[in-house]
Amino acid sequence: MTHIKQPLWEPAQSQIDAANVTKFINEINVADSKQIMDFSELHDWSINHPEKFWSHHLWQFAHVIADKGNHVLDNKEQMPGALWFSDSKINFAENLLQYTNKTPQQDAIIFRGEDKIKRRLSFLELEKQVASVAQFLRKKGIAQGDIVAAYLPNMPEAVITMLATASLGAIWTS
User: Fold this and answer.
1) Cβ(96)–Cβ(102) under 8 Å?
2) Residue 17 has pLDDT above 80, yes or no
3) 74-98 as b/e, with b when 16 or more CB fall inside 10 Å?
4) What secondary structure does DSSP assign to 89-155, as a single string?
């Protein structure tokens, strides 16, 4: 058995500097007067300060739209078994579509089918299709807590229908 001793690839310094994780580390360092230098140190810090990491830094950096609630982490000594944001309320469709106004023409979905079909949907196109399906579901009487099920292949329409369902507070299953 051959053991590889050298990495197959390493990013250029310019790629490291432009990475989201680097920006995240820099924000933590400025906000908390820290000297976190790399991902390994970030990981260690996140384990030692989970509430601050998740509730403040990551929540803010990721621009999470939600009612955070009052409980960040319950039973933290029980891993697994801890409860994260147990009284929060979040609509992940709202969070995933929040970039429409910022980057309307940027690709939201790039699809390549087994039949060689290629499709791209921008954030703006995705938002329009989600709104259209959500309007259809609403007209059919779908509301918060209802379950919407479909038998669909893994393709953009499945994502669109899931987001439309979630935007209404309903539950999606495929």
Assistant:
1) no
2) yes
3) eeeeeeeeeeebeebeeeebeebbe
4) EE-HHHHHTTTTTTSTTSEEEEEE-TTS-EEEEEHHHHHHHHHHHHHHHHHTT--TT-EEE----SS
Under the banding of pLDDT at 50, 70 and 90, the label for residue 1 is low
> At how many degrees (to 10) do helices 20-32 and 39-48 cross?
50
Q: How many CA atoms lie within 13 A of 12 on its CB side?
A: 3
> Which residues neighbour 151 within 8 Å (Cβ) at sequence distance 6 or greater?
174
Quick one: average pLDDT of 91-97? 84
How many CB atoms neighbour CB 49 within 10 A? 15
For the chain, percent of residues with pLDDT exceeding 90: 63
Q: Residue 103 — very low, low, confident or very high, per pLDDT cuts 50/70/90?
A: confident
What are the phi and psi torsion angles at 3 (to 5°)?
-105, 125
DSSP, res 53: I
Q: Does pTM surpass 0.85? A: no
Other C-beta atoms closer than 10 Å to the C-beta of 127 total 21
List for the chain the helix, strand, coil content (%; round to 5): 45, 15, 45
